[in-house]
Amino acid sequence: MKAEPETTITFRNVEATDLESVLQLNEASVPAVNSVDLDQMRWFAANAAYFRVALRSEAFAGFLIGMRPGTTYASPNYRWFCAAYEDFGYIDRVAVAGNARRLGLATRLYHDFEASLPASAGVLTCEVNLVPPNESSMRFHEGYGFRTVGTQTLENGRKKVALMAKSRES
Q1: CB proximity list for 44: less than 8 A, separation 6 or greater
Q2: Which of 14, 17, 75, 131 could form an SS bridge with 160, CB 3.0 to 4.6 Å?
Q3: Rounded to whole angstroms, how far apart are CA atoms 115 and 97?
Q4: Which domains occur in the chain, in start order?
């Protein structure tokens, strides 16, 4: 049996030239993440506390967008966390390309985002779809230490999310 060539995974801050690839992967990941347009991706690039892309052997493989309190972001889930916590890191969306799954990329992106947060951000937050269900995401988040702290029904009942939080280790 021939050994697989070693795969190099690197992260870097998003660049304007990445936004089309990010958008394509985001849209391919709906309904696990919400659909957005290129203007919204540009807004994230300008306003997110964390917006990094993952490269697998120099090819685009995924991304994570993380927010902190104090932005004008209108997401009802982000707003819920703003009301519930004084300081936090909010994972707005993460997506991994099909050919890069099962390599631990999402876990590494989560670790990288968490490491970027100041000590004052005592909790990491996110939401996971309950309707439509995203069971693999729920398993991932529970395995990472997230627990459900609330739920929210959105889009006239078409969507329900588990609002999740994970205390950060000091």
Answers
A1: 51, 65, 92
A2: 131
A3: 23
A4: 9-167 (3.40.630.30)
